[in-house]
């Protein structure tokens, strides 16, 4: 019966004419577009440009740290580099890349004609380049860019900040608006636009993880907006939220910031879980092991993310009860995360595995993300955290989860869906070069940081004691190798967009999902009448 | 699975409004940034003008964007599913606003429960108090800060109480307007909705009076009078901005009602404005309790 209705409708559609390949050309197409695929592509390109921009900053940092002593840049500029590198990678590279994937894939995966609020979707994207233009323009101001670390702890960002803090604050406000609007669009698309028959527990896990991530975004991005607003008034309007002389407390800054900041790190990893939960079954030619436990594990991680924030602040002198509470809650997160890693391993177990590049990145993700998880568990222990706090061990930890975790999953997803996006297969040889160069160099880059941190090398310092010199040299070599390896990816993507071997509708024989039922490249409009899911 | 008839989901072809809005936001941020960064620099001009240009552009965008949406809606392009998208979108937007206020309430509660008592030696902070702030006594409202700034607490009776009654009443009148709309009693709808707008404006006026009292010499309650003044002005200030926005929304709805818009079944915009109004009302009640009374 539903089928009849759908047929009637498609006839009606053709009279409508409103959304039938009205593709504009040139710049206007991209400025005015309401199409989720166009907007997804813009997000992905933007995030890659930001990734290279932030990457260059990381290389400046690594160049300075190649040898002990001050060689290349001034300490203040070094601080600007670490700050803006962090801000760009978090808000400009990883998050927009995920939003780009969500835009491209979610409507196709749930069988919707587009995102639920297409014009809002365009706005969410286009405010982002402006936000980063403001942030980056502060490099050209007299005072220089923000130099207080991406976590902008008070009083560094208030009493001791330079003149560009106001621009930093308003740029972050715009990034927040973009994320909130994007997240609302994702939630509404998933809740309201699923094809008939696609119940919540039939949604691909990719959709689930973005659904939960979007809730986290809506809940915590406004808190970030509140935090930067208090920084703004403390800096320019004489308030004393973070100043003990007026009854406030700099530690309060850290509480409010990390109430945003901890869910934020899950915002950057839950979608990664969704991606590898898509690719691993596809290349193992098996159904995902423990689908429902994956859903519950994702939801548990999201819930726990709200009650662990103070593990970033063990050394601030919290009451003992606080230290214990946050330590145990943090360790609890290892349980649902362990469920996930177990399920990925179990999915591969006795699968008929083939090692295409998306799968290589996914397997690397599982192993290296787990290393990052384990170092997180070490950091979660309050007594030992007093040793690790603010050392390179922390830097190693979060780069393992964000680079070999989030970024590798984005690469896995990009390789997996590139044929669907462009209609051409990517160059396999280049992709293997990209993978192996990245894998080797990233470990050379980040693994020795563990040893540096355990030995006591502090983070965010442009100079260091002589005994750290050897490791730092290797880390810097790894950093440049990793940075250059990403150019392979750039060349590969440009080649793939321009042409190559034609991709069939479903290039991976184990792949499942509605996106593979449409041709490659996916038509400009897909699922104007929803498919029926049994 | 329930079989529900499939209606076409309207996907607008192209729109220039989002990019206009993006440029507007850019101007606002650059203008505000410039203005704030040069507060103490009398020679600097321009920031404020860029800010105003941005605000003008965003108002222009809103007119254009909403005009598009209203035209599409009235020409019957929207389905029931579309209506749901709008409703859900608006509810999650309000939820995000709740979290924005949560940040400031969090700061208020943290200051009251932790930082102010700790500065006076509570917990294990006796040495902090004795060495750093020996003359400081923790009170709330914090009428004397550790560095000696003195101020006065704002009582809950008088203007704040009147404001509470005004806003609670306006929430009820907004609800009556909604009921009247659903029962197609246009006359009553105009009356209740108009009354709601008037109550909102009176609230804002009273809030202005209260600020004038605070800034007068008898009270010396300024934005920079320590954590009490900070939380007081930022919470009531952001709330006041939201009331302003809500009043404008209701006013637009009033004009649309006069133009004969909305039917008992199809009135998402009205509903959204009324939800928003209830939301600012709830925030005020929480604010009244934690900022004024307790």
What can you see in these coordinates?
The complex is a heterodimer of chains A (534) and B (294). Chain A has 534 residues and is mostly helical. Chain A is built from 17 helices and no strands. Chain B is built from eight helices and no strands. In chain B, α1 packs antiparallel against α2 (47-74) and α6 packs antiparallel against α7. The radius of gyration of chain B is 23 Å and the shape is globular. At the A-B interface, α1, α2, α5, α6 and α7 of A face α1, α3 and α7 of B.
Quick structural summary:
The complex is a heterodimer of chains A (534) and B (294). By secondary structure, chain A is mainly α.
Instruction: Provide the β-strand percentage band of chain B.
Output: under 5%
Query: What characteristic shape of chain A results from the CA principal axes?
Result: globular
Name the structural class of chain A: mainly alpha
Count, helices of chain B: 8
Main interface pair?
A-B, 92 and 78 residues
Key features?
heterodimer; A: 534 residues; mainly alpha; 68% helix; 0% strand; disordered N terminus; B: 294 residues
Strand and helix layout:
The complex is a heterodimer of chains A (534) and B (294).
Chain A: H1 2-16, H2 26-32, H3 36-65, H4 75-110, H5 118-137, H6 165-192, H7 205-236, H8 250-267, H9 270-284, H10 291-304, H11 320-332, H12 334-348, H13 357-380, H14 382-388, H15 392-422, H16 428-454, H17 469-498
Chain B: H1 17-37, H2 47-74, H3 80-119, H4 126-132, H5 159-182, H6 186-215, H7 226-258, H8 268-293
Helix pairs in contact in B: 1-2, 3-7, 3-8, 5-6, 5-8, 6-7, 7-8
């Amino acid at each position: 019966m539903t089928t009849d209705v759908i047929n009637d409708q498609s006839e009606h559609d053709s009279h409508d004419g409103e959304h039938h390949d009205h593709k504009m050309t040139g710049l206007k197409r991209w400025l005015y577009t309401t199409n989720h695929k166009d907007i997804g592509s813009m997000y992905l390109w933007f995030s890659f440009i930001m990734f290279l921009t932030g990457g260059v900053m990381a290389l400046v940092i690594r160049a300075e740290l190649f040898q002990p002593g001050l060689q290349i840049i001034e300490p203040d500029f070094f601080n600007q580099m670490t700050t803006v590198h962090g801000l760009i990678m978090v808000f400009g590279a990883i998050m927009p890349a995920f939003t780009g994937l969500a835009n491209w894939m979610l409507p196709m995966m749930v069988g919707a004609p587009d995102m639920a609020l297409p014009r809002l979707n365009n706005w969410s994207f286009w405010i982002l380049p402006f936000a980063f233009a403001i942030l980056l323009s502060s490099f050209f101001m007299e005072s220089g860019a923000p130099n207080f670390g991406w976590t902008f702890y008070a009083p560094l960002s208030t009493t001791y900040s330079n003149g560009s803090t106001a621009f930093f604050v308003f740029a972050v406000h715009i990034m927040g608006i973009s994320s909130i609007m994007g997240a609302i669009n994702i939630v509404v698309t998933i809740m309201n636009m699923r094809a008939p028959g696609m119940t919540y527990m039939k949604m691909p896990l990719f959709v689930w993880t973005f659904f939960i991530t979007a809730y986290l975004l809506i809940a915590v991005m406004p808190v970030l907006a509140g935090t930067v607003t208090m920084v703004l008034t403390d800096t320019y309007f004489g308030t004393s939220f973070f100043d003990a002389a007026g009854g406030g407390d700099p530690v309060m800054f850290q509480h409010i910031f990390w109430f945003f900041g901890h869910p934020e790190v899950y915002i950057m990893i839950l979608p990664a879980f969704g991606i590898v939960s898509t690719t691993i079954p596809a290349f193992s030619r098996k159904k995902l092991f423990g689908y429902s436990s994956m859903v519950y594990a994702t939801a548990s991680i999201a819930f726990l993310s709200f009650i662990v924030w103070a593990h970033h602040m063990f050394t601030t002198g919290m009451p003992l009860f606080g230290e214990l509470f946050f330590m145990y809650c943090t360790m609890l997160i290892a349980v649902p995360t362990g469920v996930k890693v177990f399920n990925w391993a179990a999915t591969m177990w006795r699968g008929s595995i083939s090692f295409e590049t998306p799968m290589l990145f996914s397997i690397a993700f599982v192993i290296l993300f787990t290393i990052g998880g384990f170092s997180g568990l070490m950091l979660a222990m309050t007594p030992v955290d007093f040793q690790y706090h603010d050392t390179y061990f922390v830097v190693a930890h979060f780069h393992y989860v964000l680079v070999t975790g989030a970024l590798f999953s984005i690469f896995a997803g990009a390789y997996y869906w590139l044929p669907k996006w462009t209609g051409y297969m990517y160059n396999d040889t280049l992709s293997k070069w990209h993978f192996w160069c990245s894998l080797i160099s990233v470990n050379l880059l980040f693994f020795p940081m563990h040893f540096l941190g355990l030995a006591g090398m502090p983070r965010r310092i442009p100079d260091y004691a002589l005994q750290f010199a050897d490791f730092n040299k290797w880390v810097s070599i790894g950093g440049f190798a990793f940075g250059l390896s990403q150019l392979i990816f750039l060349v590969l993507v440009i080649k793939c967009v321009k042409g190559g071997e034609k991709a069939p509708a479903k290039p991976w024989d184990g792949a499942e999902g509605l996106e593979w039922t449409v041709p490659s490249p996916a038509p400009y409009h897909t699922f104007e009448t929803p498919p029926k899911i049994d | 699975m329930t079989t529900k008839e499939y209606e076409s989901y309207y996907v607008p072809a192209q729109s220039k409004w989002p990019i206009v809005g993006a440029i507007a936001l850019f101007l606002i941020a650059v203008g505000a940034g410039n203005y704030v960064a040069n507060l103490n620099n009398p020679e600097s001009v321009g920031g404020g003008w860029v800010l105003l240009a941005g605000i003008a552009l965003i108002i222009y965008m809103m007119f254009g964007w909403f005009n598009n949406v209203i035209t599409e809606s009235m020409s019957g392009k929207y389905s029931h599913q579309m209506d749901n998208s709008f409703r859900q979108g608006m509810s999650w937007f309000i939820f995000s606003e709740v979290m924005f206020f949560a940040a400031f309430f969090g700061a208020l509660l943290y200051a009251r429960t932790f930082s102010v008592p700790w500065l006076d030696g509570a917990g294990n902070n006796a040495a902090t108090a004795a060495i750093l702030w020996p003359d400081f006594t923790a009170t709330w409202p914090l009428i004397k800060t550790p560095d000696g700034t003195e101020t006065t607490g704002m009582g809950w009776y008088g203007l704040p109480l009147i404001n509470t009654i005004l806003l609670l009443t306006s929430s009820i009148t907004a609800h009556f307007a909604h009921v009247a709309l659903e029962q197609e009693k246009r006359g009553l709808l105009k009356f209740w909705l108009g009354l709601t707008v008037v109550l909102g404006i009176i609230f804002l006026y009273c809030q202005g009076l209260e600020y004038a009292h605070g800034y007068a010499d008898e009270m010396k309650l300024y934005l920079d009078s320590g954590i009490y003044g900070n939380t007081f002005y930022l919470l009531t200030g952001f709330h006041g901005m939201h009331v302003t926005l809500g009043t404008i929304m209701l006013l637009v709805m009033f004009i649309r009602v006069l133009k004969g818009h909305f039917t008992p079944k199809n009135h998402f915009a009205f509903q959204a404005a009324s939800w928003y109004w209830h939301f600012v009302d709830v925030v005020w009640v929480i604010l009244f309790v934690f900022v004024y009374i307790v």
